[in-house]
Amino acid sequence: MSTSILSRPEGTTRSYPAYSRPLWRRALFTREFAVIALLVAVIFYSNNNVEFFDGPLTFYYLFLDIAPILLIALPMTMVIITGEIDLSVASVVGLSSVLVGQLHADAGLSIPVAGLIAILVGAVCGAFNGFLVAYVKLPSLAVTIGTLALYRGIAVGLLGTKAVTDFPEKWTDLAKKRVVEDHSFPMILVPFVVLAVLFVWMLHFSTFGRGVFEIGLNDEAAHFTGVNVARTKFLLFVMAGAVSAFAGIYYTLRFGSARGDNATGLELQVIAAVLLGGVSIFGGRGALHGVIAGVMLIGVISSAMRLENYTVNVINIVIGALLVLSVISTSFLGWAKQLWARRGRGSGPSSSETGQHRQAVAATESTNER
């Protein structure tokens, strides 16, 4: 068997910019930028039509409403990038809500202690999901559909049809407090920003995040490159459970009510926002800035349409259509990139270097066939 050694023509240097698109094109021709641009357009439209900044639809009420989705979307993004999914997050929200209510009302624990226990229970719920998915190798869709019913059943079984509403006023006020009086940002944005910075660093600037993307692209190849696939997936499900429990604490204090059916259906809103924000349902692709924009886009559209007296069914139709278009846009962008690449190759120089490159590729293919 013969071996071919490929060499570049003299005088040529291999560099990253020479083999990639310009930065502005890589930044603008993305689903994340499209979602951000659509969000800005909707906000300006809402400002002109329903008084977004000064009227009833303010940033304050918007962030109060979407805060649980924003929080849960952070770990959910990383879970979906690995090619998995977690449908039990809303049930963990309901379970943590019930735990906080019962531990405070019946056991007499303070809200911080009850909340800490609820977060630990949420992490255990996530660990159970992660163990079945990562180590037992069960499909995450089947596992989390089962635990969705399990955790919700436990929550309803613990509290029944009752609701705990006896919470200290200082804690319920804190859930709705503004960062600065007379400004539009609620206090819940402080822990969200802290978590967002942490998750952005983990996903986009750490070896752990690179492993997450590698798992989504090909988990077997990721294993052979040194990524601990099982441990990574396990930790992501633990984080999803813990953050969902924290969102449940906020949900309980925000509405001043702990019920077993709190946040029913919230998991579908989270997944819709993550996919709308540019994360591929097949894994291997996504960015947190697009997901945050996707959550805000859904929140702005829903709030603006409610103020315009549209029914819930119409709002769901609009959001569903946006989600379908976002999924279709992946294929469209791929086609556009291929078309642009063909145009670039067609306008390239037909020099001897091109001929040498073609000979090199042919030699490589011949060697691979042998």
TrEMBL record:
Q: What keywords is this UniProt entry annotated with? A: Cell inner membrane, Cell membrane, Membrane, Transmembrane, Transmembrane helix, Transport
Report how it sits in the membrane.
Answer: Multi-pass membrane protein
Region Disordered: list its residue ranges. Answer: 346-370
The protein depicted here goes by the name: Autoinducer 2 import system permease protein LsrD
Which PANTHER family does this chain map to? ABC TRANSPORTER PERMEASE PROTEIN YPHD-RELATED-RELATED, AUTOINDUCER 2 IMPORT SYSTEM PERMEASE PROTEIN LSRD
Which InterPro entries does the annotation name? ABC_transp_permease
* Pfam families linked to this entry: BPD_transp_2
Superkingdom, taxonomy of origin: Bacteria
Membrane-spanning segments? 28-46, 58-80, 111-134, 141-164, 184-203, 234-253, 265-283, 290-307, 313-335
Localized where? Answer: Cell membrane
